[in-house]
Structures are given as C-alpha cells and as structure tokens.
Amino acid sequence: MAEFVTVDRAEAGIAVLRFARPPLNLIDVQLALELAAAADRIAEDAEARAVVVYGDERVFSAGDELAELAELSSEQARALAGDLQRALGCLARLPQPTVAAISGYALGAGLELALGADRRIIGDNVKLGLPQIRAGLIPVAGIRRLSLLIGPARAKDLVYTGRFVEHDEATALGLVDEVVAPDDVYTAALRWARQFTGGPARALAAAKRVFEAGTHGHDRARGEWAELFDTEDRSIGTRSYSAAGPGSAEFVGR
Prior knowledge:
This protein has helices at about 30-45, 65-70, 75-90, 110-115, 145-150, 150-160, 165-175, 185-195, 200-210, 215-225, 230-245; strands at about 5-10, 15-20, 50-55, 100, 105, 120-125, 125-130, 165, 180. The protein is an alpha/beta fold. It folds into 2 domains: about 5-195, 2-enoyl-CoA Hydratase, Chain A, domain 1, CATH 3.90.226; about 200-245, no CATH class. The strands form 2 sheets. A 6-stranded mixed beta sheet has the order 1-2-3-4-6-9, sandwiched between helices. α9 (about 200-210) packs antiparallel against α10 (about 215-225). The longest helix is centred in the first third of the chain and has 15 residues, at about 30-45.
C-alpha cells in the first residue's frame, strides 16, 4: 500500500496519478519508487486512456529530499542510481498520453519527473528549475530529456547555474506548453487529457515509443507502423477516414 501516491479515475478514461508528501512534496527514494510502481500499474490498465499527474494545489514538488541524500555513502548512491533514474523517468514509459499539472514549484527531481510527461501545464505563479548543482550534485534523470526538449545550450545554462525560471521564460524556452491561472491548472490538464479518451490507444502508444527512441526513432517508426496493421483501430480508422473523413472513427482501443 503506497503511503504518498494515489491513483484515481477523475472521469471515464482518465487516470489521475497524484502524490502528496507535505508540506513541499519533496521526492525521496520511497516516493520515487511509489510513483514508478503506480505508473507501471496504470500502463497495464486498458481503461486508462490518458493520465494526469498532479501534486497538490500549492506545490507540484519543491525538489529532492536532500536530508536523505546527505546521508548516502558513495556505495549506496551507486546501488541506488539506476532505480532512481528509472523511477523519475516513469512518465515517459507510460503508453498513454500524459500531462503534468504543475502548481507552485517544479524543482529538482520534481521537474525531472515532469519532463517525462507529454505535456506540462503550469500556473502563472510557478517556478521551475534543476538546482541540484547547488548541492554538489547533478540531475540523475533529467539532463538528456531536458537537452532534447530545449536544446543543449539552454539545458546547460539551467543545469550549470541551477537557477529558477518563471512562467514567461519557461514558455519561451519550450520547457512548458501552457500557462493558466493557478486555480485552473488541474482543470486545464483534464481538458487536454479528455481529447484522448476515445482515441486509438495502440497508435498513440506506438507514437510515444517512437518519440522516446530519440535519435533511433526513424528506425523504430518502421516496426511500429507495420505492427499497427494487426490492430482493430487501424482497420476502423482507415475505413472510416476513407469513407467519411477525419474524426469519424469510433475507436475501440485494440
């Protein structure tokens, strides 16, 4: 039974992965592993067609639990690094379209987690950053993903300085996709997720795997494209598109 993480069904087809470790939602090892375990369960849930990831109304996550990290030996850190990296990348492995609804702060491990989502929606009072360098550390899971998202030069600036950015700069950098009033973050995330509840789940998952393949995505796309010809949704979609145009298909998710 998870202590800090819950998974709820906000409405038909939308799973809400929520984590609460008051007062700042600092991500320690236990929370990271609970998030990864919950994401693995959602990945196997055929009824979950889109996912919203949410902290709470005040803060998504203010970062790493440095008090815990301060006590680790180098041997313990080496043993933990792979599991922690995998846990913080759990959103990228979800087959469903995934949106992070961000309030207050998304710092350190919190931002690394959010970087794995397909979309990031923030309130206009949010601050984001990867300040681990100020603690003599680096992000264990976020550097490559950040670099692919905003480019190496901009990523280096954020990682090397550990500085925070506010909503306007985050938008200009391409770090976030939508800025709304703080009270509207969760509602805006649900609205984005809702458009996929009747979508072709297998094709969406295939597209996500191609994006996640990065520089190897061009090769990965060939196999993913061909495998979709075994799905019901491909048959439904191609025939309905041909007969009645885009938007006419009623997909079944298989």
